[in-house]
Amino acid sequence: MLINISKVKIVKNKINFLGYNFNKKTTMKFLFTNQSHFNLANMFTFANITAGLLATYFITQNNFFTAIVLAWMGGAFDIFDGKIARKYNLSNEFGVQLDSFADFLSFVLVPVFLIFQAVYSKELSGAMLIVAAIISIYYVISGLRRLIQFNINSDAGEVSKYFTGVPTPLGAILLWLVYLASAYEIVPAFAVVFLMIIVGWSLNSKIKVRHP
Fold it and tell me: In 3, 23, 107, 132, which residue has its Cα 20 to 30 A from 69's Cα atom?
């Protein structure tokens, strides 16, 4: 698409383009508008999603170190999006749903996929590999169930003092620790399967976890 710059007029602080007026001082106002899908908090959530997608790609390339770095970057974006949303009153229903989608990708799918690629597929075979695949699916369903239930029970902008059940970001951290224990040969692959079951169960348990 070619833009005819002759049709762009700048008068003081206003830009007129094809009959539409844009105020240079307020063009970026959407970043701090509660109902904007692209407000600042949601932009950090989109960055989380991007990190999760890139991590998934690097897992397929067996570049697990880069994938883990990207996953932790996604975790940092997840922390910031919540703090920004609360500080600038940017919480809305779209943001709640978007955040859960980002959590599902970065804190459920990515760690499970990494463990399957880096541990199960390399160290297990036959019936045990099938069992590991079933447990991986169980964890994904547990994470999805938790996020959906969380959305049903939560109101935009409200922050509970305690989580009921282990939140998915903490579950991801636990899985990263399990992966590291396996990578350094502290725990065998079959123990990783067992630990994944425990963490998956904890996501929808009655365990109380204090909100940071």
Answer: 132
Name the β-bridge partners of 21. 16
Distance CA 51, CA 42 (A): 14
Q: How far is CA 80 from the centre of its chain?
A: 12
Q: CATH 1.20.120.1760 residue ranges in the chain?
A: 33-210
Q: Does the domain spanning 33-210 belong to CATH 1.20.120.1760?
A: yes
